[in-house]
Amino acid sequence: MGKVLMKGNEAIGEAAIKAGCFNYFAYPITPQSEVAEYLSRRMPEVGGVFLQGESEVAVGYMLFGAAGCGARVFTTSSSPGISLMSEALSYISSAQLPAVFVNIVRGGPGLGGILPSQADYFQATKGGGHGDYRLLVLAPDGVQEAVEMVMMAFPLAEKYRNPVMILGDGLIGQMMEPVEFPDHLISEPSNKDDWATSGMDTRNRKDRNLVKSLFLNAELLEEHNRFLKAKYDRMKQEEIRYESYNTDGDYKVLIVSYGIISRVCRTAIDMFKTEGLEVGMIRPQTLFPFPENAIKEAVSKSGCKAAISIELSMGQMVEDVERSVQGVCPVHWYGKAGGDVPTPEEIMGVVKPLSK
Amino acid sequence: MQSEVMFAGFGGQGILLIGDIFAHAAMEEGREVAWIPSYGPEMRGGTAYCLVVTSDRPIGSPIIRNPMHLVAMNRPSLEKFAPMVKTNGVVVVNSSLIPIRADRSDVDELLVPANDIAKDLGTTKVANIVALGAFVARSKIVGFDILRQCVKAMFAAKEKLIPINLEALEQGKKVAEEA
Amino acid sequence: MAKTFKKTAALSDQHTHYCPGCTHGVIHRLVAEVIDELDVRGRAVGIAPVGCAVLAYNYFTFDFQEAAHGRAPAVATGIKRVRPDLIVFTYQGDGDLASIGMGEIIHSANRGEKFTSIFVNNTVYGMTGGQMAPTTLSDQRTTTSPSGRDVADVGMPIKVAELISALETPAYIARQSAIKPKYIVRAKKAIKKAFQYQLENRCFSLVEIVSTCPTNWGMTPIEAVKWTEESMHAYYPLGEIKTPE
Lengths: 356, 179, 245
Description:
- The structure holds three protein chains of three kinds.
- By secondary structure, chain A is α/β, with parallel strands linked by helices.
- Chain A folds into two domains: 4-202 and 225-238, Rossmann fold, CATH 3.40.50.970; 242-355, Rossmann fold (3-Layer(aba) Sandwich), CATH 3.40.50.920.
- Helices cover 41% and strands 18% of the residues of chain A.
- Chain A has a five-stranded mixed sheet with strand order 4-5-7-6-13, with helices on both faces. A five-stranded mixed sheet of chain A has the order 10-12-11-14-15, sandwiched between helices. A two-stranded antiparallel sheet of chain A has the order 1-8.
- Chain B is globular and about 40 Å long.
- Chain B has a six-stranded mixed sheet, sandwiched between helices.
- In chain C, a hairpin with a 5-residue loop joins strand 5 (124-125) and strand 6.
- Helix content of chain C is 37%, strand content 18%.
- Chain C has a seven-stranded mixed sheet, with helices on both faces.
- Chains in contact: A-B, A-C.
- Chains A and C meet through helix 3, helix 4 and strand 9 of A and strand 1, strand 2, helix 2 and helix 4 of C.
């Protein structure tokens, strides 16, 4: 199949179908309602399930139920909607259900705005709901990568029996880019007979399955949490993904940036090159687990004078960058959170003084 | 080589559509392309615009303050975006609806009475296609044959609209060539 | 000797944690018997609520999910939509269904989701210690209405079965009681009908069951039965409220 020009939101919906997910529950919210509009047409065509729930709260639990009985399932929403789903995310994480959540982030807090933002970094990577849980968080920088990450998300969710979140932004949802749906990312759903409430008759094992998150006994809850932690630690071993840009040679400053704004940074780096200034970049593709070692190594290179986290928020990822850099060099931050995406020139103006 | 085209007008003028057709044409030529719309409350009845970035390399920042070219279908669009266009850019002005000019000596301003031409063809609805034809003929960013194919593809589901849209494209081209 | 009684296969051997005089055990038994009689244990999935019945999954021998407070109907929707062949029911109390989960139950009912809700109404939050529920009767004392429910302040108790019956989507809605054998027999019939409608893929069904909570009411089990019959049956009339066309 060749490339097709698709809007990010529609491409995300199609990617899920291509990945073998035929169950979608959602509630409309700008700037991602096109996913629901698209799938309300597409799901019936492929014999799948489309349901517009009464609220994001309910949608979260529709995913709980559907994933709990063994189906591949996903939803899409935007920031305020993800806040409402965060309750279900906590339960789904504890019950260890594979499900995929796409957050096309808009500006906050509160109703905020509908323009692109990355201000849900903390919510996605540090919790959002209650309790010790983590989501595996993938951050695409454009429509093609959003497609690939959606397709990857289902087998990842099944591998870890854990929700996976795609953290996009309003611009990725709204823009059109040529995309293809790589065959090698098509995956078969895993066998879930060991735990899914799929009905005893459908399984060879005759004991019943139970999907739950309640552990009234302190020892059992401790054990459960340790089990979950081991799983998150395994993600840190096996799932870190990032892209390096202009880091082969020496550079004066290391930019850490993800998602749509990383593309602006890439352009700024190219423009710096024509001026004779070398700037490198690490672009985390997984926000949890975070590429701590890659960043530490990148700033440890001789000649690197500073690191800067450039993000569409008032300084969230910068905390993880500081944690990764471990004092090797100063860590700076630049960001905007109103919906206005900085230009390459603006970023050059911020980065240049750090090189001196 | 990267170029950025701003298509702007008011809601209902088919602004996003001509951006879409143009983006398709660039993609069919094997170029990288990004189509970025304005979205939100302003898309409901107010001004509508979209930016199409094309390049022979992967597109970095899709956020462009100063586009290379502008297709302005109404007055507020021209007033808002004409000052931002880069030097030597093409500025298509829908002179049927816009009494003013870009007021720039460093751009290639092309007056296209798009609504009048469209009206003569039978419907002002194709004014956007007239402007697109004029713009592509002038800027030569994509080949005209591919553009024709993309117009046909866009109206594939409403086949009877294809001839008038192709004619609108030719009329636009004619204005550009004669200007 | 001929066998006249055998254990309900859908019920486990575990002793329940319910208080003396509580009717949850009776209602569990009725649900389990219906599941066995309809021979659907192998494709049944129950959804436990938050509240006293949070551990209900321990007492049944088929697949179960445990939902968050009030969200059981959304969980059931998710299951039933992706696996219409499963027989799905929620088991919810009054705080769970009629307060925090009112949105989920109303919308599930209105969409005509093909699952069954067993709604146990005993007028109080049991698990959290006897606080006022949306179904607490007028002037009834609870730990958060120490002088009795003041309806001028918090409104009249909600008649859930009637409320849901006001929706136009075809549904089977009934209210029965679990306090005496004569009522229990009717309750079982209603539960069985509800599951049968589900098996026929006909409609959403809800059976409200008037129940007791002697512990939180501060009564003996016998007093509780008497009070239920006199006060609750008067405000919450028993019978079928809506049947499918």
